[in-house]
Amino acid sequence: MSNEGANKYVRASRLGPDGQQELDWCAPAEVPIGMVYNKTPHAVMMATPEDLQDFAVGYALAEGVINQADELQDLSFQHLENGIELHMRIPDKRMERLKLHGQRRAHFGRAGCGLCGVDRLEDAIRPLPTLPDTSLCIPYTMAAEAAQNLGKKQPLRRLNKSVHGAAWVNTQGEITHVREDIGRHNALDKLIGACAGDGIDFETGFALLSSRCTFELAQKCALAGISALLTLSAPSASAIETAKRANLGLASWDRREGALVVFTGNVWTG
Asked: pTM of the full predicted structure?
């Protein structure tokens, strides 16, 4: 998808000490994206119509629909009057599991919420894998540099000043992948899909999010096999507990103090 589809320009007014100024404001697009598996509707997420192939793969991995990227087959886009449907084929055993676990979400998921459309509590807080211990070592200086550089790697945000960013940072401290979306969950799904498509080993780096961390973001990382997560806002208590249970290294960057706040894991070093 092009940036033209991800952004919309609207008229606005800026009020300040110098009076009123009329301007064209760039706002991120937000459209319904339907996830359809084996011709069965599963979920509708409000998302930015950018990097939809990555979104399809990452969402399926992060939500436990599939276990590995190559289980997602025959992806096609259907542009409808009111949104876009992503039609996918998954193995019959995965489809049976989806039905068995009652995870079908044939209604609405807002961009700001990762749980809309979940009918039962047991489908919201799911069993988590325990991530293996890792030799990953992330120096404070590497985390700081990545946190400070994320905004420079977000082309959509430079235009619309709104979207969240999710990035992958390798062990050299390089931001190798960035995906953006109006929803922080969607941005992470897109990142997971992009990295999985490129064969990234999730034990050889860390994910970086422009948002706060809530438990479902920690849950997505654990399900995808990501060993460490750094966010630019502090996590919720449930996110910290989720990270502890999953053996996920979780930290946040305190921009006001210029400090790394570590909550879980031994991957972060001084």
From this structure: 0.82
